Fold each of these.
Amino acid sequence: MRKLCRCGQNMNLGFRLVIFENKFQVDRVPILECEECNYYEVLPSFKADVIDLLSQLKEQGESVRVYFTEMNELADVLYGLSSQAAKLDPSAFRVLLEQSCNERINLLLDIYGCAQKLGDTAWMNEIAVRLAPLSKFVKKGQSLSAK
Ligand SMILES: [Zn+2]
């Protein structure tokens, strides 16, 4: 996961508290940051999800603080690996990330099976929502830093 900053330096994976309109706080948003010039941007493949979450928060209207990693399972897996990101080269990190996503998918599928046995449709739906970003990422094989 490498991308060059506009100043020419490599940008690194990080997580940051992002505040919108002085009111809505979304913590642990995956970003790419440049140590050289302090520029940062939301990791491109999460931009749409961050915007979705923001519009949901705006609809609810209350000033709240949420963790993006609790709303997006792929971000959560990535957060768990963030200390490895700087140590590994991009292709090794990519392999690790895919492995971790597959492990999380298997875990969620187990839980889904339990929910199904109980006939708990609300729980099943919740797990399906959590699975979606993971399976999309694994199937598409897209780069996180691509738009
Ligand atoms: Zn820079």
Note: The pocket of zinc ion is lined by residues 5, 7, 9, 34, 36-37, 39 (CB under 6 Å).
Amino acid sequence: MTDLSSDKINDLTARIKKNEGAFLTLIRERLGIIIHPHQKMDLHHTLLEACQKFSLTPEEYLHILTFSSNNSLEFSHLIAGITIGETYFFRDNNQMQLLNDNLLPELIQSKRERDEYTIRIWSAGCSTGEDIYTIAMMLCELIPDYKRWSLQLMGTDINAISLQKATLGRYTQWSMRTITDYFKNKYFTPVNHCFQISPQLRELVNFSYLNLNENTYPSILNGTNARDLILCCNVLIYFDNVSIANLMKKLEDCLVPGGYLLLGASDPVILKETELLQHHSQGLYFSRPAEKQWSPPSNPLLITSANTGAAKPTLVKTTLAPITDLPKHTTPELGLITKLMRESQWQEALNIIDKNIIQGKKTIFLLDAKATALANLGKLSLAIICCHESMSLDPSNKQSYFTHAMILLELNQLTEAETLLRKAIFFDHRFVEAHYQLGLLLFRCKNPEAGLKCFRNALSIAKNEKSDYPVSEFSNLTFKQLVTILENELVIYSKHSDKNNSDGAKQSPGHSSSSRPLA
Ligand SMILES: C[S@@+](CC[C@H](N)C(=O)[O-])C[C@H]1O[C@@H](n2cnc3c(N)ncnc32)[C@H](O)[C@@H]1O
């Protein structure tokens, strides 16, 4: 950091004030975060620090931020300055009781009754991971035979440094200020005035980068789909009303029917875009209503044009186009399916796919779309049947291997998933999502070196593609967003890889007790 004269600092401060509006707009547009009047002093301080640190004028800093990705050094500095990662174990007593006494026991019971031993919980905006580890501790207490279960716990955040700390799982006394001795002694080991989370808990939780203000979720690709419970606590306070409404709708879509959403006690709530049900018991929480029935699309044209497709299996070739410009399909209905898939409207897409299949148009496109939609809705067995059907129509169809691999990852069948991902890559060496998912899988299997190599492969492929194009037909994720995610994952996991190397820990696929892809 450069030491500046007071004249220079006064000049920078004046120019920061002059450009304040442009900084606020950029922060709102890129992160959805709104800076309230009482936070402006802190923002000015962060901007001044950045100008000194990077030897830039405020105008130059603004320019760099405008054209750099969210994980550039300059942007990371801004994110760290404007987001408060304050969090601790067992943070909100009422919420903890609600979870421990009601929601989690109910969830466990209903899963046992259905013979389904999988629980999927996501902390969105997890900072350094205390709240998702708290849930992990509760689950271990509530499910004595939890090792027989597939506990799929995930924490995501926009701050890669916080996520790096979460993956290391080492906490100061400050994070432990409300934890009881029982939990402290059972799940932590004191190390150099800090507390190291037990490997058993560490293994249960995966962390990854996700900007809640982007359209990259829900998706099976980053594990945000079909969640039984989502915690998004003390995050909405940062957002403007439009972003909050949008975010609540998307979080609703990430839940299984009947799944729960919990917010922080002082988080603003905007339900107008959602069908979420409100519950008031030991605090406010929300649930997604039971499954909706299909209703015909409102545009009658889309129904009458449905009979133009071929009856025998055909591969619908599509050229990927920017998100705003959907690929030209043979029928408007197929275009609509792609659009709905890209908007994560899985059930709506499925209804139209099924209608087409019933009409005798069982194409690879429809089967792949159906498998993807079913997998995203958590209907894994049905999705696998579609993958098999698609593979039998075209044994070299990379998409069906990939979707099947994603389902097996969700079922924790890592060896088989690895084989399928490698097959998908064999059929298309530039299959960026397969490289990325293989990287995540190898991390789960405690092979960080190989995992990092896959991330780097994925990154070099993604960087060579058109940045505003989607990475695949059914995804809203652009290559530019994938580059940001991969660069963040490399930050988070290169540290993890150092640690694993020094521990000398290695495991082969299929022997990991961790339970979900990290994306
Ligand atoms: C106060 S912490 C909350 C931590 C934890 N959920 C809790 O309640 O204790 C807020 C977190 O939201 C994250 N955040 C802010 N904007 C975000 C965005 N656009 N996408 C993802 N995370 C975001 C911040 O980085 C920060 O870690």
Note: The two ends are 35 Å apart (CA to CA).
